[in-house]
Amino acid sequence: GITLGLETSCDETGVGIVADGVLLGQALASSMDEHIRYGGVVPEVAARAHLESVTSCLRQALADAGVALEQVDAIAVTSGPGLASSLHVGVSAAKAWALALNKPLYAVHHVAGHVAADTLQHGPLPDRSIALIVSGGHSSLLMLGDLATDPIVHLGDTLDDAAGEAFDKVARLLELPYPGGPSIQRAAESGDPAAIDLPRPLLTNFSERQRYAFSFSGLKSAVARYVQLARRTGEPIRTADVAASFQEAVVDVLISKAVAACRDHAVDTLLIVGGVAANARLRAVAAERCLAAGITLRVPAPRLCTDNGAMIAAIGDLVVRSGAKPSGLDFGADSSAPLDRSLLV
Ligand code: ATP
Ligand code: MG
Ligand code: FE
After folding, report:
1. Please, are residues 269 and 130 in contact by the beta-carbon 8 Å criterion?
2. Over residues 197-224, mean pLDDT
3. Ligand 1 centroid vs 279 CA: distance in angstroms?
4. Which tens digits make up the pLDDT trace of 252-278?
């Protein structure tokens, strides 16, 4: 069957069309440019932009896939987590489409979508795998079984900021443009990753509960102290070196813990997903260390890492094929939906 997916949880409006694990087409619109001067996503601005572009994204995705609206068999929509006002637009649009077409509607988890995105590129998941999800709102290590039907087990989460949030905050400290991740990556290219000695939070000193937990706020504070000291002493801020050193510290902690989690649980497949998985240094270090540890690494192409509609169609397609019951039309958006399963309602 053909599943259409709609994503509107943040500032990207995305529609994807998937049939039996194959991406047929997609369309993406972003209101990122409208948020640049505020240094972060403004919820009301994002919601209005979703409303304005959701119909054209639908048309574009159908055209891209060469699929007629009547051929769509099921609709999946992100119902959480994310910005409430943004989620509401997508949920309302998807309900209208489902009602007009008389098709089943599935409310799915945004982060399960990030994980499912990888299956569009690398095929079905093995029986067991571990996922490192690193994005604007999440930094977690997850134990996965069957993505559509099995519960998702959290091995560890961030105790404070998400990895993407840390990139965005450090970029702001360095007066680099929003969004911070790509800016830091660019600045880091000409920097020395060993120039500034930054901490590796929870990498060596951790309690048993913190074995797979992350913490990035201390790293951000260390960068803030460096910047303040430089300002006070009148020294130039070595932006490229700070960016490279910060990026290296984040990547080191993320990949070390992900590889350890695989080893400890005798899991031989690691997925890295979410916006920060687009980071070139993270991808390089992950490839190197997974090869050394005999772990099969799966990281989707950068455009499948950041928010998009294809990932929601991908998780929708898996859920539909598992034979799950549709969500009906009486659910709402859940801005803080916990990730313990892919189908939310
Ligand atoms: P969530 O998925 O947790 O709800 P989100 O949808 O806002 O959050 P994504 O779109 O998945 O997040 O990811 C956006 C984040 O990824 C931003 O914090 C951004 O800075 C970061 N990011 C994007 N590209 C890169 C990159 N090349 N390097 C590092 N970080 C990046
Ligand atoms: Mg975004
Ligand atoms: Fe996301």
Report:
1. yes
2. 97
3. 9
4. 999 999 999 999 999 999 999 999 999
Sign of the Cα torsion 49, 50, 51, 55 reads positive
N residues, the chain:
345
Residue 65 CB neighbours (<10 A)? 23
End-to-end CA distance of the chain: 21
d(CA 239, CA 231): 13
Residue 31 φ/ψ, nearest 5 degrees: -100, 15
- For residue 328 the two structure tokens come to 């009906």
Residue with tokens 């965005």: 168
Kindly provide the ipTM of the predicted complex, given to two decimals.
0.97
0.80 exceeded by the pTM? yes
Average pLDDT, the chain: 97
Mean pLDDT across 39-50: 95
Q: Cis omega before residue 151 (within 30°)? A: no
239 lines ligand 1 (CB under 6 A): no
CB of 25 closer than 6 angstroms to any ligand 1 atom:
no
Is 78 near ligand 1, meaning CB less than 6 Å away? no
